[in-house]
Design a protein that fits this description.
This is Chromosome partitioning protein ParA. The chain has 15 helices and ten strands. The protein has helices at 12-34, 48-55, 59-67, 86-98, 130-143, 158-162, 176-180, 188-191, 211-219, 229-234, 254-262, 274-296, 318-331, 344-351, 366-390, and strands spanning 46-47, 75-76, 82-84, 117-121, 148-152, 193-194, 200-203, 243-247, 265-270, 306-310. The protein has a seven-stranded mixed sheet with strand order 6-7-5-8-4-9-10, with helices on both faces. A three-stranded antiparallel sheet has the order 1-3-2. Helix 5 crosses helix 15 (366-390). The longest helix is centred in the C-terminal third of the chain and has 25 residues, at 366-390.
């Protein structure tokens, strides 16, 4: 049972300590209800229709493939419907790609000489849907055959939670902090964990990551520049991935700048409201100043794209649509063409630390699910196009 008596304590630090304690108990209880204690998060099965769509083949092609034994025989659920696991979809991509005449049709990732794409999502405005956009992008790309590494650069660890690691409960392994810290850093490969989502690995975060801000201030001027720490850490594992997606904290501190330096592209998620517009303006102005400081050290940063992503978009809300139009007029192709629609399906899924891709269509009102999924797919496809463009395709 939760404590509900009024909090009274001698000092403000004790008051806040008790507040933190209560919240922790409530969170732990919530998480234990969502995930049975010994149960790890797992990915749902995908219907034959959805699998065919993901692979870009017809249902008939799939049926033929498994009757001829060239594709795996999927499980059949209680209703007699075929269902493919994420691993099976991944394995099918590999075998289809091996037999395909069009290179990259089923595995659209890097080819020889293509450089690793590192996309950072950043905006110092809290709640601009950075983490939600990040996890949807990671899941979209992984489902579409890219090898993805998610890096959680936010001490709040939202992305880590979305990836099924509960820092509040059982997870106590190394985190990205251990790869970035100044004293005896670990190789990034010791920090990366694979997730239950095929194609997606994670460098997790927890609260201690905020120490990087203080340690960087203390270490200023000693040894390699702080902003090189993430890109240096990434170098040894870069061959394992096609795309790296970085979620950042709602601040323009050393962590965000470290990500920005490692990034080959930047997405600025933004909710179309007047307050967010003003805040985003300040954010871009500050970013420009910091980039200038980094460039003054003689380093050049070339981002393949630096674009805005409109999030929590509500086409029926006229004032917000005026802001969307203004942004499009000001920045044209620096606005991702598709927007992430505001959707109760996405909000509901995120309560369970899930993306829309983890929810089965049959678990929600179909039209609500379809609208959210179509919107997230469109955003994912736009960004995948930019990635392909960066590779010259
Ligand atoms: N497309 C959407 N439709 C509905 N709700 C959304 C959508 N995208 C995000 N949200 C909700 O908005 C809130 C903020 O999202 P999120 O945590 O992703 O923002 P953030 O920018 O990462 O926040 P922070 O700055 O704290 O890191 C969450 O409650 C999330 O569920
Ligand atoms: Mg976040």
């Amino acid at each position: 049972m939760f404590q509900t008596a009024p909090i009274s304590a001698a000092s403000q630090s004790e008051v806040t300590e008790q507040m933190a304690e209560r919240l922790k108990t409530a969170l732990t209880t919530h998480l234990q209800q969502v995930y049975a204690p010994d149960q790890r998060k797992s990915l749902r099965g995908f219907s034959a229709t959805e699998t065919a769509e993901l692979l870009g083949v017809s249902g008939q092609f799939l049926r033929k493939g498994h009757s001829e034994g060239t594709l795996p025989e999927p499980a059949v659920n209680k209703g007699g419907r075929r269902s493919y696991s994420g691993d099976e979809i991944w394995a099918m991509r590999q075998s289809l790609e091996a037999g395909s005449r069009t290179k990259g049709k089923y595995l659209p990732g890097r080819r020889e000489d293509d450089k690793l794409q590192v996309i950072q999502l950043m905006n110092f405005k809290g709640g601009s849907a950075k983490s939600t956009a990040t996890i949807h992008l990671c899941h979209y790309l992984a489902l579409n055959g890219y090898r993805v590494l998610a890096i959680d650069l936010d001490p709040q660890g939202s992305l880590t939670g979305f990836c099924g690691l509960q820092t509040e409960l059982e997870f106590d392994g190394p985190t990205i902090y251990d790869a970035l810290r100044y004293e005896a850093p670990l190789p990034l490969s010791d920090v990366i964990v694979d997730t239950y989502f095929p194609g997606l690995d994670l460098a997790p975060a927890r609260l201690i990551l905020s120490e990087f801000e203080t340690e960087t201030a203390v270490n200023a001027g000693r040894g390699a520049a702080f902003f090189e720490r993430l890109s240096d850490a990434l170098a040894p594992v870069e061959g394992d991935y096609d795309v790296v997606i970085i979620d950042s904290p709602p601040a323009l501190g050393f962590l965000t700048l470290t990500g920005l330096f490692a990034a080959t592209s930047v997405l600025v998620p933004m909710t179309p409201s007047m307050l967010d517009l003003a805040s985003t303006q300040q954010f871009i102005e500050m970013t420009s100043a910091y980039l200038g400081v980094i460039e003054d050290t003689g380093v050049r940063m070339d981002h393949d794209f630096f674009s805005f992503l409109i999030t929590r978009d509500d086409p029926s809300d006229i004032p917000s649509q005026q802001i969307v139009s203004l942004m499009r007029a000001l920045f044209q192709d620096r606005i991702i063409p598709s927007t992430a629609l505001r959707s109760t399906a996405i909000a509901d899924a995120s309560m369970l630390k899930m993306s829309i891709y983890e929810v089965a269509r049959s678990d929600m009102t179909r039209s609500t699910y379809d609208r959210a999924r179509t919107s997230m797919d469109a955003v994912g496809a736009d960004i995948a196009n930019l990635v392909q463009k960066a590779w010259g395709r």
